[in-house]
Amino acid sequence: MKMLFCLCVVWGLACPLFAQTPYLQPTSNLPTQTIYDMLSDRQGRIYLGTDKGLFRFNGKNAWLIPFEDAQQADFTALREDKQGRIWGLNFAKQLFYLENDTLRTFPFSAGEPEGRLMNFDFTEKCVWIATSNTLLAYNLQDFKLVFSKKFEVHLVDVISYQNHIKLYASHFVFTIDEQMQFSSETTTFTGESQFFLQKDKLYCLQRKESPHNYMIWDSPTQPFRMQKLNFPPSVFLYYARATHEKTWLCTRQGGYLFEPALGKTTLVFPEKDISDIIQDFQGNYWISTLNEGLWFCTDLQNMYYPLEPLKNTSIELQSLFAQGENLYAGLTNGHIWQASQTQPTKWRDIGKFSKEGIRRVSFHPTLPLFATNKGVFDLQGQPIISFKEYVLKDAHFYTVGKRELLLITFFFRYYWVDLDLPPSLPPNWREEQKSPSPKWRGVGERSKTSLFPLRRLGGLDLDSIRSRDFQRSAYTTKVIPQRYYCAVADVANQKYWVATDNGLFAYDSVGKETHLKASGKPIIARQLLTDGQARLWVSTFQQGVFVIENQRVVAHLRAGKELKSNFIRKMILQDDKVWISTDAEIGYADIQNFQFQEILPQQGRDFCITEKGLWIALSQGIVFMAGGQARSSSIPRLLPIRKVGKATFAVEALHYKNPTEIALHYRLKGKNWRTIQELQTLLDYSELSKGEYEIEVFAQDETTKARSKTQIIHFKIPARWWETWWWYAIVLATVGALIFGLTYLFFERKRKKQLLKEQLWISQLKALRAQMNPHFLYNILNTVQGLVYSNRKTEAGELLGNFSDLMRKSLESSENAYISLREELEMVGLYLLLEKARFDDSFRYDLAYENLSDYMHLKIPSMLVQPFVENALKHGLLHKKGDKYLRVHFDMQPETTQHKLTVTIDDNGIGRKASAEINQRKKNKSTGFATRATAQRIALLNLDKKNHITWQIHDKPQGTKVEIVIHI
Fold it and tell me: Under 8 Å CB-to-CB from 330, ≥6 apart: which residues?
């Protein structure tokens, strides 16, 4: 009670201080809370001059624009020239202009000007710059100095006004016309003053001196007239800003709306250190401050009414409801406050109704009754029915005939209560009725008796319980099968619905139950509402809103489609609209086409609808939106698409009302639409083939479906270098040359192979010739003849047999380029056997081999070894006296991928030097034929081999040794 008494005292003291202000919403994602200046350019972009530099802001994010050679980061005095470039000053009074997304220092062509930069403005072709003692004009095209004039007085401000330049200095205002002619006017203003334009009139406002006055020029050629400003004398003016049809004065104590024609000011945004106020292209207001960042206001008629007694307390608003001309606010301390809609700043406490706070209130449509979570009360707060033990979840009043019924829901059961009241009540009804006793009947236990035969409702058998309080003992033996959330009835169509934690159930007039589902899944309802067209609107905890007609879901409003969130806080029926509050927005859906229109992109504690408009409860205040409509436009703006590459385009959209729900839709004409949830993006079509194309792009608010105009961009992909005729000619010529070269190489190689083959055959024939030379044949036949004369017929027959075998094998091998090792050994053996017959017994030979047992089948070039053996006999051993010895040795050495055959021919003859001397004496005799033929043949064989056949001759003290290495 002491706390309540203190609260009432504070409330009574604070009532005269209650005020209304436009509803402001703070802006997040800002890099700083200190903003000096703002600008909305012709295209709708917003620029913020802050203590950390210049930022571009799209309602969602802010991007820092880099400086070029800046001495300080602070940025202010934002202007836009006729070419759309953004200009500004930093606190070091450096002048910058925005070009290619970089702030570039202005290049003073005549050197740095004298004095301190004060301000600047633009005409069609020039930028006019005022320093503390000089006025300068530079051409906007090439930044060349075109005008300069010094003054003896201190200059303060400059402005362009209808092709004239107005220059303010202490006690003077100078005018420069189009012919650069000067005129001046004397004023009483001293110190800081500021020019601004509004409705084709020029104003100069005195900022510091009190009382505040201002000068007005109706045209640049007429003298000014002085007007007194109705403004608090102690308030210092930061800045005057004209936005569309309104003029704002920005001060440390708040933002004032200024009516220049009357000199009247009205405090609109109190208690904020406001530096600037602008209006974007959608009609929203942006309020910058020096210490609280940026604030947002959709409409000046959307008012905020703070409940001042709740300030600096832990008590908050929990629910809001309306009845007739009154508003009722349920607080977290269980109290209900009442105020008139015409005076929403004056509230009175009508009593405490709960310990845990007032969450839900339902009003009777005609009688002065309402139901809360702790009972049914009259409008003076007197209890009609109280629930001491249980908390009411849901309540609805119904009038059927002369009966007043109340459908109430608890966690464990729902009831129909007969209030037993007459149709109308006289002013002293309580005294006459003597506390009427309500009658009720429980139906949560699914009684077999029909709840509604409405044709018999007048005689409905209600259990008569005289106690005004529910008694726990009456239901302790009942089993609670499920938890109940809410229930609602459609009396005209004789049906009602009950929502439980097991799903949603419908009951007809005879009690038939139907379990309603959506896509085969139970519907867990939070609130039920009938729209007067036999349709049920169902709000849920996590499934959005369902619309059910004839026990079938006909519409589903959900996140990602119509709504931002599936968590529904509350629904209210008003005329042909169902108002819906989620944890992210408040708006309404049309009951005919179910289209959703967002009104406020912010959640509230609760809301209600009256004829005046929409009322939204925040934690310690109420927001009012006249007519329940958002005044600012919801149509996004698609900026002109910029080409940043041969086939790359920069796309940017602006949507300050609801920037988080913007989407860019684009496509190549004739293709499918694509969507990206961004305010800006790059479209790259550089991979397209050559040809002419069209891109279609539009921006859309995905919640309201409001969309911008579609932009169509025509562009052409030129032929790449690989698609040009000269490239095709080069490719064709290259391919032709390649084909010709490959063909030439193929036939040349084939020719060389054929030539090599022919040369090999020739060399093979030469080898055969060397093996079958006439001298050898003559010697063999002469030996045979000698043996015959000596009557050694057996030996002669063997010699002829060996000779015929050698001839046969030699002729057979001459037909093959390669023969087996076995065949080569046999031919060498036969040859040595025949040669031994020529010599006397002094000649011995040894034909040996190692490691050949498994390799006799391997192939080697035919008639390769025999010429070296013949050379050893003919030139080494033939002229030797005494013992003659020849050793022919074959040795196979296996390797990883090939086998190496080493053939050694070793004799003890006279040696190469002595043999050469003998051959020189026999000048008429051809010498070395076999050796040369074999050498040529080896060279030809090596042309087609990776591992060459090699041979070496080693001179010994007595004899010669030859080594031949063949890779098989």
Answer: 317, 318, 319, 320, 321, 336, 357, 358, 359, 361, 372, 606
In Å, how far from its chain's centre is CA 661?
A: 14
Report helix, strand or coil for 181: coil
SS3 of 620-632: the string is CEEEEEECCCCCC
- Note the pLDDT of residue 434: 34
Q: Is the pTM of this model over 0.90?
A: no
CA distances from 322 to 386, 612, 615 (A): 22, 11, 9
pLDDT digits (tens, 9 = 90+) for 343-391: 888 899 988 887 778 877 888 877 778 888 777 887 777 777 776 666 7
| Residue 381 burial by Cβ neighbours in a 10 Å radius (0-12, 13-18, 19+) | middle
Structure-block tokens of residue 482: 């499920």
User: Which residue is listed with tokens 């007048």?
Assistant: 458
Query: What pLDDT score was predicted for residue 758?
Result: 63
Question: Which residue pairs from 808-812 have beta carbons closer than 8 angstroms and sit at least 24 positions apart in sequence?
Answer: 810/768, 810/771, 810/772, 810/863, 811/768
Distance CA 333, CA 496 (A): 34
* Per-residue pLDDT at 422: 41
- What does the pLDDT look like over 524-576, one tens digit per residue? 999 999 988 889 999 998 999 999 998 899 999 998 888 888 999 999 998 88
Residue range 745-783, pLDDT digits in tens: 888 887 777 776 666 666 665 655 555 566 667 677 777
Strand, coil or helix: what is 265?
strand
What whole-number distance in Å separates Cα of residue 377 and Cα of residue 469? Answer: 13
Q: Are 949 and 967 in contact (CB under 8 A)?
A: yes
Structure-token pair, residue 651: 């796309």
Q: Scanning the structure block, which residue is given the tokens 């006397």?
A: 840
**779, 835, 865, 951 from 828: Cα distances, Å:** 17, 11, 7, 18
Q: Which of 397, 416, 403, 503 is nearest to 457 (CA)?
A: 403
Confirm if 536 and 525 have CB atoms less than 8 A apart: no
For 596, other C-beta atoms within 10 Å of its C-beta total 20
The 10 Å CB-count burial string (b at 16+, else e) for 684-706 is eeeeeeeeebebbbbbbbbbbeb
- Distance between CA atoms of 886 and 706, rounded to whole angstroms? 111
pLDDT bin (cut points 50, 70, 90) of residue 632 is: low
- One-letter amino acid of 525: A
Average pLDDT over every residue of 14-35: 76
State the Cα–Cα distance between residues 845 and 848, nearest whole angstrom: 10
Q: Would you state the structure tokens that stand for residue 200, as one six-digit string? A: 């084709």
d(CA 627, CA 327): 16
